[in-house]
Give the backbone structure.
Amino acid sequence: MNIDQIIDSLKSNNSFMKNVTKWETVPPKKGSYSSIPADISDKLKHALSESGIFELYKHQAEAISFVRAGRNTVIVTPTASGKTLCYNIPVMDEFIKDSSMRALYLFPTKALSQDQLHELLNLNELTGAGLKVFTFDGDTPVSARKAIRNVGNVVVTNPDMLHQGILPNHTKWSRLFSNLTYVVIDEMHQYRGIFGSHVANVIRRLKRIARFYGSDPIFILSSATIKNPKELAEKLIEEEVTLVSKNYAPAGEKHYILYNPPVVNYELGIRASYIKETMRIAEHFIKNDIKTIIFVRTRTAVELLTTYLKEKAKKMHKNPEIIQGYRGGYLPLERRNIEKNLKEGKITTVISTNALELGIDIGSLDVSITAGYPGTISSFLQQSGRAGRRNSTAISIIVASSAPIDQFMINHPVYFFGNSPESGIINPNNLIILINHIKCAAFELPFSDGEKFGVDTTDEILKYLEDNGILHHSGDKWHWTEAIYPAEEISLRSATTENFVIVDISNPPGKVIGEMDYFSAPMLLHKDAIYIHRGIQYHVDNLDWERKKAYVKRVDVNYYTDAEMKTSIDVLHEDEEKHFGFGKLTYGDISVRSTPTIFKKIKLFTHENIGWGKIELPELEMDTSAVWIELNYDHKEKGINDDDFVGAMRGFANVLRNIAPIHLMCDPRDINISTYVHYPKTDKPTIFIYDNYPNGIGLSRRLMDIFYDILIETGELITGCPCKNGCPSCVGPALDVGVHGKENALNLIKFILSHEN
Amino acid sequence: MKIEDQLNRLSKKVGRGKPDIDSTFKIYENRHPFPLTLGKYTLNATFQLEEITKITLPENPAIDIKDVLFFDTETTGLSSGTGTIPFLIGFGYFINESFITKQFFLKSPSAEYAMLEEVNKIINKYDYIASYNGKGFDTHILESRFILNRISSRLAELNHIDLLYPCRAFFRRYLGSASLQNIERGILNYTRHDDIPGALIPYVYFDFLKSGNDEKIHAVIEHNRLDILSLAFIIKLLNTLMKNPSESPHELVSLSAANYLKNKRISGEAKIHFENIIQRGNNDTLRKEAKKSLSMLLKREDIHKASLLWEEEKDELYAIIELAKYHEHKTKRIDVALEITNEGLDKCRLMRELENNNLKHLYDELEKRKRRLLRKLKRNTKT
């Protein structure tokens, strides 16, 4: 069967179709083209035609003309719509005109940059212009660094290296900074949350150093589809940015299929395993030699699916080598090999982790299957973008797991095809992050009196740093007076520098398997906790609080642990209030003090409580920003007893925790929720939703604006769930929220929705 | 919350009052007339660069010591990033039968530009600089400061005699570490009194900036002056050792020096050193090591002389192999070569249990040689 025949056969397959929540067919689209700008150098035009490019997609031409007019530009178009050309053409053209030109390319990860360079190098070769392109990252040999600094026209690096290696040593890079014409920021949507807030500050530093050397670069950004690309770009570079978002690249017919595995236990709301369903779906395509990529969430799942599908291939009398895993950790050569074999048809099915959804040159495939919602819609769209060709039909299937977010998304197909609900949110002025980067900036170049770095009150921060002996004010400047190198101690990937290191001591002398932030460690890494890392269970033998180390050993036990935290919240400052019929919504700063108290041992699958233990750790205090909902709701009047109301509040919070990240484009761990049946000061039921990072990263602030949207969706998630009394896919199991938890949580939401005024 | 309040919550610290420090820099100049003594060495009017330039400036060995600017800095940190400030820049030069040290102390970071301009005037007078690890550290820091202050400087273009590299080669094996002060103590026989530990220096400066109290700064200035002074004596020391191995405090120094000179292809001096060790012969291991190195040096120049050394060292595998080669290719005495090769194989078999892969390699090599020699013998007997 060819792909169109498979589509027909799936459509008539009842056992398949009964699980399809949506089948969306996007008709084929013709491309719209513009001619290559006339004033582009002949050499480059020639090179483009040599590589088969005689005209540009309209969006490419548009972006290039903005950039060449000196405007910062963000390009937001799907995978395989020729985004890289939008920055490579201006860079190459500028170089042909002025060989002293320098450009900086920033990619969020190391692996990406290698693949993306290929096109630029190819263009350079065809022009014969002699553009020098170098990757500068942690793997660059010391002996090569000097040459890169002196002669590299295009330096390809990542924000971490810019932060720790390049900016603090800018005098060695004076040629780059003196001639810096373009800064390219690829995969911009990755710069959100903590990471994005840090990167925005790194860009402030970059601009500050560029100014010192008299240059004022143009920024070219590219991003996957999100709700607020222009806003995010402008927040990142703090300049006006022009948006190019309409895609004019041609595309063949595309079928999107949303598949929800059937419920196998209504009582507990348990669905059939999404991995097994994925296997079953994949068989249709393997049988017919259709080129397919399957995205799963873990490396273990890659291995599992690969093994299973190879077995299946054998049974179909096919060479099992047509099935290959493709995940992080594979060497570039192995990857090139897989790519080559895919192109030549020696491989038909690739199973990959979502870590590799970006920037891999595997050409176009016919089918993509996403097993489990990958966390964000932009991530799903990048995965599904792997399937699709100009002239033939393609299919993208998503198979939902029973996680609440999966269940919500699979029932809200509009998000996949309509406008993205996801906003990239950053808060570059998070005080802790800001102070850290002001330190780095002061190390790089003394601040002058009155100089602004992000905030008007920069002087106050400088004064604070002087009081702490870090800076010294002399003349009209603030000089760095510490013997350390501040960037070395500041990681762009976390809010605090005080991370806990997790050491696996199963095999002495042990090895580091991961890190955990300061505020999560007490919950997940307390002594005797069962810590699950990449699907493997570890027992925490000891948590060394002073040295920030957790020592763990591999175990295989039939339970997990769940810590209980005693949390108390004090309101520090109220910034904004909104009054509603149901009560009040407030945004402001809070202080969260929490102490882990006990942990429960919960049996796997049955969720029976099979024991408990005490946790003895110090209290943690964190100042952060929050939104809180204060309710004029008297549960007793409604005939709900105290215990049931606790369950209702908890159930509501559980759903909220899963819905909010869809809009905030964050991990559920990035926010936290605390509920009070009687908040001490007001005696009213109150729900605090706060950023799980010291001083906040702007997540809860956004909730003020989209509160009702989110609430409607929480209600829909609960009503849409087929379970009886609550399950992990909605409000949580009845064990946690009580037998009436589901019903009461829903009533609570209905109350809020019906009392807007 | 306002930033002010947030900052207050971050730290309850109250800002301290700031001392009045005048925002200038200060120059400390000292004249050290000849004869000038440090430990067991003395500098006088005849002092010159001499031998040391063969190593450090091979392309231009005949320069006058008066044309060299000695320099050393004290900084606010050890990273070479742009936030590290050289708050004390010390120079030394020879003029009118004396050694002058001139040190620039930055009393306030805001005076850096003015100070660097003066510093640059001195640098501009010279084509040669001498330092201890200046190539790896001080020049990078200074260049960075010049760029930051937008001053153009010739510093990077100067010929640089960095004494760290020869000192490391000469003294590390003997002293363990070739730090300036280790060399002073262990070789020059000079011990500093009340010297400030290098690690404390940044903090002394930070403390000075905060308090204005310059008591401890004087110790830093003195430390820097002695560092610069040491540089001149180290040149004297290296010159002496190169010319006269008997001055060496220990055969290890002699041997290190000899090996270094050999690698630098300064073979005249190298040979003198090797022979000195062999003659002194207090330490058998070092003597054997010297013989081996010397024989390899002689192999290039006078293989017959080398073969005499190998004969003496015939209990060593390397010597056996070299002798076998010597007789096979030079004297053409195939039978002697074969006999020696067999000795070597026997020796390998005896050592086999004890040693490693490297031996296996040598053994195979000997086996190969044996087969070849046997072939040659056969051919010779036929003809």
